[in-house]
Amino acid sequence: MKIGCRARFASAGTLAISFPQITWAADDLLRVTTHPVAWACVVIFVIAYIAVMAEEKIHLRKSKPVILAAGLIWALIAWLAKEQGVSHNDLSRAVMHDLEEYAAMFLFLLVAMTYINAMEERHVFASLRSWLVQKGFNFRQLFWVTGILAFFISPVADNLTTALLMGAVIMAVGQKDVRFISLAMVNVVVASNAGGAFSPFGDITTLMVWQAGKVEFAQFFVLFIPSVVNFLLPAMIMSAFVSTGQPLPIKDQVAIRPGGLMICALFLLTIFIAVSFEHFLGLPPFMGMMTGLALLMFYTYFLNLQGLTSSKRFPSGMHNYENLDVFQRVARAEWDTLLFFFGVIFSVGGLRYLGYLEVVSELMYDGIGMSWTNIAAGVISAIVDNIPVMFAILGMNPQMDTFQWLLITLTAGVGGSLLSVGSAAGVALMGTSKGHYTFLSHLRWSWVIALGYIASILAHFLLNGEPLI
Questions:
Q1: Could you tell me if 248 and 138 are in contact, meaning their C-beta atoms sit under 8 angstroms apart?
Q2: What is the pLDDT of residues 207-228, one digit of tens each?
Q3: What is the pTM (predicted TM-score) of this model?
Q4: Which residues form the signal peptide (predicted)?
């Protein structure tokens, strides 16, 4: 889950009426990359990110090290800025720039997470899982059904939620068939990441690119065919190794709670409102999302009125399953993820302010070229999370056309599939698979996933029009 910020920054000191671009003017950078204090900031970020990558081993939530790193980095920057004669106003403006980035993305993601949690509480996902389990598919059919559903659900939900849903289905029907569980989960990770790559709502990185104003909403859908290629090629090869045997029948029937389908409809309406606010009114998408949150609040209010009315028939204290508190759904949002974004944005923003992103941009984009840099960035995102990779590239603000921005959107989105630790979907499934899906079991199929990665890039170049060399 697999969740950037939009608008054009009118001037360095004013609050933007829409999302600010993720970059400062060159004159606003401190440019002290050779100073020992600046080196210390880089070391702090690297140590923090090593802790993030080791989250499953050390059981330290990923938000904690990056939030600490952000505080330490900006404290050192403040000390260094004072030494360089930078005024408090200029330093504050740099920090507030990152705050605008974070606040806009925070509100957008908070609404999306609240809707997902509300649908989960109404048993929308549990009902879908129950339906799949009872259909009587064989193992190979389940391999394809879970993969295809993951591909088409992740553009609307997110890759993390989608992977967890399909992973629960795989575990329920796979039982002790370790080979099936392992292959099916690899397939779901690839499908979830590929499905999120062609939708502005499918992944945090696509959301960041859209809200940074680099690609228009409708333009993302030209990545649909490359995303399909990225999913289908590995799936076709892996499916040949999946048994056609029949899993044991399971009786697991779950019905959607009252209001569940209406909440799904309101979520789709909220997405439409967010797109309309941006496209027709020039307002940032998070305003549309917050408006959609209000619709959910009013709907659950009336839903609860009906539930409370019917509950009068029951003895006092009896649990009323109709009651749905939106604020409880807000409280159940992925706060570790939301605070992780805070740490990433402020840490990378601090390195940008020191001038490091400008140096990297010159070495890579001006040195080896845009296409190869964007392809390499996708491979890097298999090791380092794609969010800081994409935020760093947006901070560099290389002068790329729409084709190249779509290329980095594709590679950053699907590159994480190369390793199980490269995306939230893979990390989540490793934690819920009871040892059946591991880093090594995913690594055995990385060569197949790499073929899909290369093929999807070639499809983008072939269909969307620019020679690779």
A1: no
A2: 788 878 888 888 889 999 999 9
A3: 0.69
A4: 1-25
- Give 383-386's long-range contacts (Cβ < 8 A, gap of 24+): 383/53, 383/419, 383/421, 383/422, 384/49, 384/53, 385/52, 385/344, 385/416, 385/422, 385/423, 386/203, 386/204, 386/205, 386/412, 386/413, 386/415, 386/416, 386/422, 386/423
Asked whether 436 and 429 are in contact (CB, 8 A), the reply is no
Burial annotation 248-258 (CB, 10 A radius, 16+ → b, else e): eeeeeeeebbe
378/375 Cα distance (integer angstroms) = 5
Distances in whole angstroms, Cα of residue 187 to Cα of each of 17, 138, 184, 194, 433: 42, 16, 5, 10, 14
Closest CA to 275 of 261, 264, 263, 289: 289
Q: How far apart are CA 441 and CA 436, in angstroms?
A: 8
For the cut 80, the answer to whether the pLDDT of residue 401 exceeds it is: yes
The larger pLDDT score, comparing residue 16 to residue 91, is at 91
Q: pLDDT tens digit string along 121-131?
A: 888 877 877 77
Mean pLDDT throughout 29-39? 87
- CA distance linking residue 128 with residue 165, whole number of Å: 9
Burial of 46 (0-12, 13-18, 19+ CB in 10 A): exposed
For residues 159 and 411, the answer to whether their CB atoms sit within 8 Å is no
Following DSSP, what letter does each residue of 125-137 receive, concatenated?
A: HHHHHHHHHHT--
Q: What are the tokens at 342? A: 């805070």
**Residue 452 to residues 151, 232, 281: CA-CA distances in angstroms?**
14, 8, 39
* Residue 29 and residue 356 in contact, taking contact as beta carbons nearer than 8 Å: no
